[in-house]
Amino acid sequence: MAQQRLALWNAEDLEEDVDLSMAIGNYGPNVPYEDTHIAQPQIDESTLIAMQQHMAQQAAFSQIPDVVKSFIVHFHQAVLDNNLAEITVAYESGWNKYTEKFYAKTEWPEAELIAPLVNDDPIFLILYRELYYRHVYSRLQPNIDDRFHSYENSCELFNYLLNSDGPVTLELPEQWLWDIIDEFIYQYQVFCTWRSKVTTKTQDELMMLADGGPVWSSYSVLNVLYSLMQKSKINEYIIAQREGKTPEEIAEIVGEYGQRPLYRMLGYFSIVGLLRVHVHLGDFTLALKVMENVELNQKSPFTRVTACHVATYYYVGFCYIMLRRYPDAIRTFVTILNFIQRMRQYHTRSYQYDQISKTADRMYSLFAICHALSPTRLDDTIANTAKDRFAEQYAKIARGG
After folding, report:
1. Does residue 275 sit in helix, strand or coil?
2. For helices 174-196 and 218-232, angle between their N-to-C axes, nearest 10 degrees
3. Confidence at residue 400, expressed as pLDDT on a 0 to 100 scale
4. What is the mean pLDDT of residues 131-152?
5. Orientation angle between helical segments 144-163 and 218-232, nearest 10 degrees
6. What is the CB neighbour count within 10 angstroms for residue 225?
7. Which one of 43, 209, 212, 299 is least enclosed by Cβ atoms within 10 Å?
8. DSSP string, 303-343
């Protein structure tokens, strides 16, 4: 058979008038290929933008250092396990370590970028954003989007804590719980100051503020703090402890929320937060009224967090000054300033040393004013330190001019 085919193709007696075009069709080299009949793929603008964003996210994700990725994974696992020891180390040490090393002058990666590392865990991403925006406020300059988004994230966090079906199982260190309340009030305070400077705003910023509704309103901030107090029944807990109730009686009084350390400490810190907010709003009598069940002594729970301890005495002392209770103010400032002096070595190692030191400087100034208006020999060490720091101003106040 093969020989027959070979003979056929080697035949020399093929007719010369055979029309080869009938055999090979119209696909000769001189016929151009037409592609107009092939449908071109249509990509709408939204799909194109999504593809570009995905590519940009992949590029940004690849820029995150591997040690930071590992840290975030470890941090997330510690939160999932409610491992307070590991969470504390990650929060107080790891976060600040990598901030100084990689993000001292820039933002941390956005939550959406690191979401794949934590399996899109919504609760951890809320906590991560809380740290993210706190970093923006402390190290960088927040823009209007940061201010609005930080408020939205705070609302998500407090809605989760207050409106879930029963108490949440989340456990966080007391230091972090205080920082959540403290930062919430700080961002509210900064927003109010920023909003009041109307002449520096662009037209777009003015429109966003006009449409912003309750963003960082005094009512919304007060509502959160009072809700945490009521949910935790912290005042009932303090009174029951003072009356010597048994743990079983206290548990029955405070209910399922008040029994959990997370809610109890958030309620306690909310009392101090309300003290601060009412001072900013100028209602010094109500500020002290909120504190009526809290004893200012070394056994109070707020003393376990140094920053809260210092802030409590500072705002209570400030209230006394504004109500012209100068001896009470002096006594308050002397107590906390002596504490800071004794613990200075520890504070120097603390990542919050700068904040505590600045608050101490303000208290020395207020002490000097009180001491000039109401001289007393309560503590010569503090008085001498204040005179050394503000010698000229101190002399002018003493002369009445």
Report:
1. helix
2. 160
3. 66
4. 95
5. 20
6. 26
7. 299
8. GGSHHHHHHHHHHHHHHHHHTT-HHHHHHHHHHHHHHHHHT
| Tens digit of each residue's pLDDT (9 = 90 or more) over 161-180 | 999 999 999 999 999 999 99
- High-pLDDT (> 90) share of the chain, %: 63
Distance between first and last Cα of the chain? 127
Residue among 395, 301, 307 at smallest CA distance from 359: 307
**Six token digits for residue 339:** 């504490």
CA dihedral 191, 196, 197, 198 (to 10 degrees): 110
Residue 36 is which amino acid?
T
Distance separating alpha carbons of residues 355 and 46, to the nearest angstrom: 46
Q: What is the pLDDT of residue 115?
A: 94
pLDDT of residue 235: 95
Length of the chain equals 401
Cβ-contact 216, 151 below 8 angstroms: yes
Residue with tokens 């934590």: 118
Tokens encoding 260:
């959990």
**Cα dihedral angle (61, 66, 72, 78), rounded to 10 degrees?**
150
For 7, 9, 17, 109, 203, the CA distances from 14, given in Å and listed in that order, are: 12, 9, 9, 78, 88
Type of residue numbered 373:
L
Find out whether 151 and 215 touch, Cβ atoms under 8 Å.
Answer: yes
Q: Encode 93-124: b = buried (16+ Cβ within 10 Å), e = exposed.
A: ebbeebbeeebeeeebbebebbbebbeeeebb
The whole-angstrom separation of Cα 261 and Cα 224 is: 18
Enter the tokens of residue 44: 């709408």
Q: How many CA atoms lie within 13 A of 300 on its CB side?
A: 23
Q: Is 30 helix (H, G, I), strand (E, B) or coil?
A: coil
User: What pLDDT is recorded for position 212?
Assistant: 76
State both tokens at 236.
């009932």
E strands within 95-208?
none
Determine the Cα–Cα distance for residues 318 and 313; give it in Å rounded to an integer.
Answer: 8
